[in-house]
Design brief:
There is one protein chain. The protein is an alpha+beta fold and 158 residues long. The protein is 35% helix and 16% strand. The chain folds into two domains: 75 residues, Beta-grasp domain (Ubiquitin-like (UB roll), Roll); 71 residues, Orthogonal Bundle (DNA polymerase, domain 1). The chain has five helices and five strands. It has a five-stranded mixed beta sheet, sandwiched between helices. The protein is globular and about 50 Å long. This is (2Fe-2S)-binding protein. It comes from Ktedonosporobacter rubrisoli.
Length: 158
């Protein structure tokens, strides 16, 4: 039996009728149509389903919607602000940090959270922050370079 709940997603209040056994990933993709959050392993191992909960990267495949009722949920669709891409989205595109693109939403959200807490992260901090997001295509070098470029861009825009 579905239960009507209110979620705060990408700055908007959303009322949605959810099945109690559905994960946040399923609710975002199937009920709210936010398909940017990727469905990967369902085991919490790949990071493709990463979203931000109150600014912290969380695996939506392991999270129940009832756990985040009073939280601010940000998906990849909500990373841009006032029609402007996040600096990390810009640098990912410019530097070719995305290849197949499947891990990209999770990488971007984890990277954006890192830049909020560490405006000029070291490579070690990047490796730690992105460790939960697996990429089979890039070897991570371009991703780290994109994070560094985004940090510089954010610094210049301040």
């Amino acid at each position: 039996m579905r239960q009507l709940i209110t979620l705060h997603v990408n700055g908007e209040r959303k009322e949605v009728a959810v099945l109690p056994h559905h994960t946040l990933l399923e609710v975002l993709r199937e009920d709210l149509g936010l398909i940017g959050t990727k469905h990967g392993c369902e085991l919490g191992e790949c990071g493709a389903c990463t979203v931000l909960i109150d600014g912290t990267p969380v695996l939506s495949c392991l999270t129940l919607p009832l756990e985040v009722l009073n939280s601010k949920i940000t998906t990849i669709e909500g990373l841009e602000h006032n029609g402007q891409l996040h600096p990390l989205q810009e640098t990912f595109a410019e530097l070719g940090a995305a290849q197949c693109g499947y891990c990209t939403p999770g990488m971007l959200l984890s990277g954006a959270a890192l830049l909020e807490t560490h405006p000029e992260p070291t490579r070690e901090q990047m490796k730690e922050a992105l460790a939960g997001n697996l990429c089979r295509c890039t070897g991570y070098t371009k991703i780290y370079e994109a994070v560094e470029a985004a940090a510089q861009r954010k610094k210049e825009r301040r």
